[in-house]
Structures are given as C-alpha cells and as structure tokens.
Design a protein that fits this description.
By secondary structure, the protein is α/β, with parallel strands linked by helices. It is about 40% helix and about 15% strand. Helix 8 crosses helix 9. The longest helix has 18 residues. It is globular and about 45 Å long.
Length: about 260
C-alpha cells in the first residue's frame, strides 16, 4: 500500500540492506527508491536494483561531495543510469548549511548533473538546504533542463515557495518531519501542494517520524508520513496512498 520514494538503506546503521528489504512486504511497503549521494553509494544502489525487484534507484552526487563531480564521475553515473531499476538522477542540489562550502563548485556540480538527467531523459531529485535563492535562480535560468521532471525532496521551504516549484512542473516530497510537534510551517506547505503533486518519503536513516523520533528511521515508517499527509489533505488514507503511487508513476515512468 505504501511507497518510500527516498531512502538510504545502504547506510551502515542497517548492517545489510537485505535485512531491511526482507521486511518490506510484511510491513506493507510495496516499493522503495534507494538514493545515491556519491559514486560508491550510486554503484551500490544500481546493484541493489539488479538484485531486488521491489527496489528502484537514483544515482547522483550530493552537494556535500561536489568536489568529486568530474567528467569521469559523470560518465560513470550515465552508465549506472542505464541499469535495471535505475529511474533517475539524484540526489543533487545545493547545501549551504555546514561550513566550509564552495558555492560555485556546488552550483556547477548541480548543473552538470541536471544536464545529465536531461540528456538521459530521466527525472531528477533535488536536495536543498539553506540555499533557496541560488537554487531558484538556477532553476529559472535553466528551465529547459527540467523537461523530464523532478522532485523537491525532503521539502523544508516555505508555503509561499510552493507555487514557484509547481509552476516548474516539480513534485514535492515530505518526510517524517510532518509528524513533529514544531512542524506548523511545514504543514502549511503541505496544504499548499495539490494531492496530485505529493510524494511520500522517509529519507531514512534520518528524520524518523513520531512515534519513533530519536531512533533509527526505516522505510517501514513511511506509513506514518502517509497517514499524516492524508489527514492534512483530508483524504482517506487508502485513497491518498493510491494517489501517491500514481504521482510516482507519472514522475518516474515505472509501476509502483
């Protein structure tokens, strides 16, 4: 019934990803999308997709690793993106939260991977933290590269910015943060997103939802995200989950 469109089950906290995957069915999780954040995790993601039909994958290099985006790395990502179950490029973007960081290097790495997604006719997944101004300028100036769709993952921007991203044709995905007691601004953003542009994710092992906040997150906990989003959209949970699956299918062009 549920899908997790953004997970990191290759993280060492899980021991082996197979231990997580083995529980998906019994927990009611139909599909997960595992997401790369550097070249090794992207290689591992493609291998996971090859072994498990319930796992899709994205391959890409996170802005914190922007210094590793080279022509060789881009060629490797392009090759990985053709593998079974790999459905897009991500996570890519801008992150100015932790210092030091190189803005120009991050912007160049983001644009190079956005161009890669466009050249492959694949959707992309954007990571954005403390860099909305630069991101919005880049998206506006390079709108032609957005033709094959994308998602603002782990949305943490204001409700006022939602129309801007929607006009660019992007989907918006929310995590367990929507279950937090201090999530008022985020809930306003949820209400601003039409149901047919929403996606559910965990971003595990991070952002564990209530009632497990403070513990390791798992793809199984996406059900708590879906339940809260369904409440906010005033939809029956089953109908909401069906809509999310249709949204994911429309973006990634695969069956969820």
């Amino acid at each position: 019934m549920y899908i997790d469109t953004h997970a990191h089950i290759l993280d060492e906290v899980y021991g082996t990803p197979e231990a997580v995957i083995a529980r998906l069915g019994e927990e009611g999780i139909d599909r997960i999308v595992n997401v790369g954040y550097d070249l090794p995790s992207s290689v591992g993601t493609a291998a996971l997709c090859e072994r498990h039909s319930c796992v899709y994958g994205l391959v890409g290099i996170h802005p914190e690793h922007a210094d590793t985006v080279s022509s060789e790395a881009l060629c490797r990502l392009a090759s990985l993106a053709t593998k079974k179950g790999v459905i897009g490029i991500g996570e890519i973007g801008l992150d100015y939260h932790y210092t030091p960081f190189d803005k120009e290097q991050q912007k160049q790495a983001f644009l190079q991977q956005l161009e890669l997604a466009y050249s492959l006719k694949k959707p992309f997944c954007i990571h954005l933290r403390d860099a909305a101004g630069d991101m919005n300028e880049l998206l506006t100036k390079n709108r032609e590269l957005l033709r094959y769709g994308g998602v603002m993952h782990c949305y943490a921007q204001s409700a006022e910015l939602v129309p801007f991203y929607l006009k660019l044709g992007l989907y918006i995905s929310f995590t367990g943060a929507v279950t937090f007691k201090n999530a008022r601004g985020l809930l306003d953003a949820v209400r601003a997103v039409p149901a047919d542009r929403l996606l559910t994710e965990t971003d595990c092992p991070y952002l564990t939802p209530e009632p497990y906040r403070g513990k390791t997150n798992f793809p199984f906990y996406v059900k708590y995200v879906a339940k809260r989003l369904a409440e906010l959209k005033e939809m029956p949970e089953e109908a909401f989950c069906a809509q999310v699956k249709e949204n994911a299918r429309a973006l990634f062009h695969v069956e969820f």
